[in-house]
Amino acid sequence: MTTFDRRALLLGVGASLAACGEQPAPAASEPAAQAAGKAAQLLAAARTQVGVTLRYDPAYTKIPFPGGDVAREKGVCTDVIIRAYRDALGLDLQALVNADMRAAFDAYPRTWGLAAPDRNIDHRRVPNLRTWLARQHAELPLPRDASGWQPGDIFTSIVAKTATHIGFVSDRQGASGPLIIHNIGSGAREEDALLDWPITGRYRWAI
Hints:
207 residues; alpha+beta; endopeptidase fold (from Nostoc punctiforme); 5 helices; 7 strands
């Protein structure tokens, strides 16, 4: 190889390396961006319930199927989850839980003495939602502290030693960690209360 050839080769390699160095940093991966977008949609839908769902009402109610709901001014903690998924992502937990319970009824709690699925109430019970989410491989390890949660995560808690509770982890921060969107007795609210009760589960589904 002549001196000229070697010089041309070195100049070509140098130019290639310089060009590589000038490439922009890679953008966030498409799946991660999509997940963040869906979480934002989900939380926005949950947040619209604040000021609309004004009271907690656990009464058994016959509702249409699929897409059934009690009047929006009332509900329980699970209704925050159900309405947000339906409104934001078009996912109907009433129909999904009912289908899975018909296929695998023995996998679900028998706490209420049911002999068959009840599409009016099954999806509105926290233990059933926990079972369904786990069966969808949506269960995640509990974080060591409040900083380990991500927006759109679903938490479950035990309140007053026996009552079950569920809600969303918000994308807004409070003094002790992320806020939560839930209904624990006074309607849908967004507040700094994630660590007020013992956490029993963490789930992330469809985001």
